[in-house]
Amino acid sequence: MAADTIEARTLTLTRTLNTDPNSAFDAWINPQTLAKWWGPEGFTAPELKMDVREGGAWSTVMLSPEGSRHHVSGVYKAIDRPNRLVFTWAWMQDDGSRGHETEVEVAFAAKGNKTLMTLVQKVFKEAEHRDNHQKGWTSSFNKLERMFA
């Protein structure tokens, strides 16, 4: 697949969580719960601002184990509880501007007494950025999965 195709710059991840779709959905919109799993393993989320409504803004600061701060923000585009959540995503740049914006869609589907969570993030500027996000989300989802274990 060519690195410049939309498909090559789209990330899709799935995870089965040991909880119902409502609780899985809440993990994304409740600041106290989000702080428990947001960011790769070893990272914390000491700053969260969430105006959870369509058109509402959100922002977080993820703190690495080494102390570096990673600020990301966006806007909620769709909130369909407990089925789907859509929001934009952009990293704060060193000059204070927002970087390239992607869209994140998270879908929640009941599978017996569990939830199949599917994340699609698109369209990254470069496939390398998609790969970096794959590592970050996978690590974050490990924390989320343990939270519901």
UniProtKB/TrEMBL annotation:
Highest taxon above the source species: Bacteria
Similarity field: Belongs to the AHA1 family.
Name this protein carries in UniProt: SRPBCC domain-containing protein
Annotated organism of origin: Stappia sediminis
Pfam families, alphabetized: AHSA1 (PF08327)
Activator of Hsp90 ATPase homologue 1/2-like C-terminal domain location: 19-148
